[in-house]
């Protein structure tokens, strides 16, 4: 995305003028399986949802654009909470339509080397999860999913504000852990 388009997108997102899609996937729905190029602490690897779910639940959070103000705030919030998620056996991964070179830097700077971020080339994953902005189909909405093994949506939080996503996913993780 060119700088003027990125500035316009950031302005529209922060002003609330860009429509949010609201998640179509609901608790109880099957979570579409996917794999994607990802980065953790600047190191690239291939993330596979099915493999991650073998270890426990996954917080999959979609965000519009790396290094924009709201997305950076949300990444910082997830970074601070990641040790707690890990203690509950939960993997955290963010996903956007940014390229992997951008995400390698974002995983270090904004994610503070705490959790991985994945590149959704062609916006295929966001389409499968109905996590795209209505006005910009190649840009992710801000939606968080709590996915439990073997691959079911257990909780959803869909709000354009970065605030509330970590708390909603933490409540879902704690409820899952308590119910095991």
From TrEMBL:
**Which GO-annotated molecular functions does the record name?**
thioredoxin-dependent peroxiredoxin activity
What catalytic activity is recorded? Answer: a hydroperoxide + [thioredoxin]-dithiol = an alcohol + [thioredoxin]-disulfide + H2O
UniProt key word Nucleotide-binding: no
- Short name of any one Pfam family annotated for the protein: AhpC-TSA
Q: Which InterPro entries match?
A: AhpC/TSA (IPR000866), Peroxiredoxin_BCP/PrxQ (IPR050924), Thioredoxin-like_sf (IPR036249), Thioredoxin_domain (IPR013766)
Q: Which UniProt keywords apply?
A: Antioxidant, Disulfide bond, Oxidoreductase, Peroxidase, Redox-active center, Signal
**Keyword Nucleus carried by entry:** no
Function as written in the Swiss-Prot or TrEMBL entry: Thiol-specific peroxidase that catalyzes the reduction of hydrogen peroxide and organic hydroperoxides to water and alcohols, respectively. Plays a role in cell protection against oxidative stress by detoxifying peroxides and as sensor of hydrogen peroxide-mediated signaling events.
Q: Write down what this protein is called.
A: thioredoxin-dependent peroxiredoxin
- The scientific name of the source species is Roseateles flavus
